[in-house]
Write a structure and sequence with these properties.
125 residues; mainly alpha; two-stranded antiparallel sheet
Length: 125
């Protein structure tokens, strides 16, 4: 006998609730907990082990897709921020040319200088 979409949705909600409380729950324990919550066959038996396992796999796939779409959305947001940061970096490179020129003038005067950059490496002019 086929389940109605509403009863299948209620079953999914119940399974999500049980799995949220114990992520490592077995299918047999899920069958027992679902029977306690009133999810049984028309004859009053517990739901079939294979059916419960299939619904759990379906829920896991839905969860994985939701996480993937969140990651993709996050990456797009980071890409937008990175583009803005690249423009800012290009502008700052022009600003950094002046201190470099000042350092070169000091070195020409015979002074030894150590300059530390963003990567914490020392450069001698």
């Amino acid at each position: 006998m086929r389940k109605t979409p509403e009863s299948e949705h209620q079953l999914k909600l119940a399974i999500r609730d049980i799995v949220a409380r114990n992520p490592l729950v077995s299918v047999a324990a899920l069958q027992r907990d679902l029977a306690e919550r009133g999810f049984k066959t028309n004859q009053g038996n517990t739901l079939d082990w294979y059916y419960v396992a299939k619904v759990v796999r379906k829920l896991n796939r839905e969860k994985a897709l939701a996480v993937d779409s969140q990651k993709i959305g996050g990456r797009k947001g980071i890409e937008l921020l990175t583009k803005v940061r690249d423009k800012t970096t290009v502008d700052r490179i022009a600003e950094m040319q002046e201190p470099v020129n000042v350092c070169r003038r000091e070195v020409r005067k015979g002074r030894k200088m150590y300059v530390y950059g963003l990567k914490l490496t020392a450069h001698t002019f």
